[in-house]
Amino acid sequence: MRRTLIFLLTFFILTNSSFAILKVTKLPHENAEIERIYKLDNGKFIFIEQFVRGHIIWEYDQELDKFKEIAGVWGFIDLASKCEQIKSKDIYFATTLEYWFAGGTNIDYPEIRIFKLYEPNPWRDTDIGITPSMKYAKEWCTFYKPYYIK
Known about the structure:
alpha+beta; five-stranded antiparallel β-sheet; 2 helices; 10 strands; globular
C-alpha cells in the first residue's frame, strides 16, 4: 500500500506539467508544428510554430479560446520576460534573413536581434537591440521557461 502511494505521488508530481500542457495545447491551424509554448506572466500562452521558412509566433488567449498571429521570423531563439537596460517587457530573441544589396546572405552567423513580443514586422529597423550571443544575453535577461518543448 505504501509503495503504491509513493508511486502515485511521484507519478503525479513528475507528470503534473504534462497534464497542464494537455489542457492548453491547441493548434492555430490543422497542420501546425508547435515547437514550444510559453506561459506569460499575464496568463496568456505564446506558441512557436516551425514552418517551411522559419517560425510563426502565435498568442493563444485561453479565455477567448482564440489564436492571434503575432509575427513571423526566420529563426526564433528564446523569450525573455525582461532584460537589464531594455525598458520593454516580454521580448524575444530571433534572427531575420537579411540579404546583401547585390544578393546573398549570411546564414552561418546571422545577428541575434531583440524584438518586442507584439512587434508585427520584426526587422532590423524595428529591433530594440542586438546581442553577440545567447550566453551574453543570459547574463542580463530573465528568460521564460518553456511550458512545452517538442
